[in-house]
C-alpha cells in the first residue's frame, strides 16, 4: 500500500504534500526534524491521508494535490475545518 499525505504545520499553518509506503515512519521522520523541507515547520500533524494500491496512483494523486486544482480543493477543506467548524 501507498499513502498520499498532507501535513499541516502547527507553527505556520502551511501544508506539505508527500507520498510514502510507510505513513507512520514518514510522520516520525517529519516530526523528528529529519526531513529538510519541514524541519523548521514543526510540529506537524496529519491533515489528510489517502491510500492507494500502487506507487503510480499515489504519485499521480500527490501531483494533483500540488496542482492548482488540488491546492484549491485543499484551501476549501482547510476553511471548512478551521473557519466553519
Structure description:
With 85 residues, this protein is an alpha+beta fold. It has a single domain, classed as 3-Layer(aba) Sandwich (GIY-YIG endonuclease), CATH 3.40.1440. 41% of the residues lie in helices and 27% in strands. The chain has helices spanning 23-31, 55-65, 68-82; strands at residues 2-9, 15-20, 44-52. The chain has a three-stranded antiparallel β-sheet with strand order 2-1-3. The longest helix has 15 residues, at 68-82. It is globular. The mean pLDDT is 95.
Low-confidence parts: none
Task: Kindly provide the name of the CATH class.
Answer: Alpha Beta
**Major pleated sheet:** 3 strands, antiparallel
As for the number of domains, it is 1
Major sheet: order of its strands? 2-1-3
Strand content: 25-35%
Query: How many helical stretches?
Result: 3
Rounded average pLDDT: 95
- Shape, please? globular
How many DSSP E strands?
3
Q: What integer value in Å does the Rg equal?
A: 13 Å
Classify the secondary structure makeup into a structural class: alpha+beta
Proportion of helical residues: 40-55%
CATH topology: GIY-YIG endonuclease
Separation of termini?
32 Å
Task: State the order of secondary-structure elements, H for helix, E for strand.
Answer: EEHEHH
Query: What CATH architecture would you give?
Result: 3-Layer(aba) Sandwich
Amino acid at each position: 500500500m501507498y499513502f498520499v499525505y498532507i501535513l499541516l504545520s502547527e507553527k505556520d499553518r502551511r501544508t506539505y504534500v508527500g507520498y510514502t509506503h510507510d505513513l507512520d515512519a514518514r510522520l516520525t521522520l517529519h516530526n523528528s526534524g529529519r526531513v529538510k523541507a519541514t524541519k523548521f515547520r514543526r510540529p506537524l500533524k496529519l491533515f489528510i491521508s489517502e491510500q492507494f494500491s500502487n506507487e503510480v496512483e499515489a504519485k499521480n494523486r500527490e501531483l494533483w494535490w500540488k496542482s492548482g486544482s488540488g491546492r484549491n480543493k485543499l484551501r476549501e477543506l482547510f476553511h471548512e475545518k478551521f473557519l466553519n467548524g
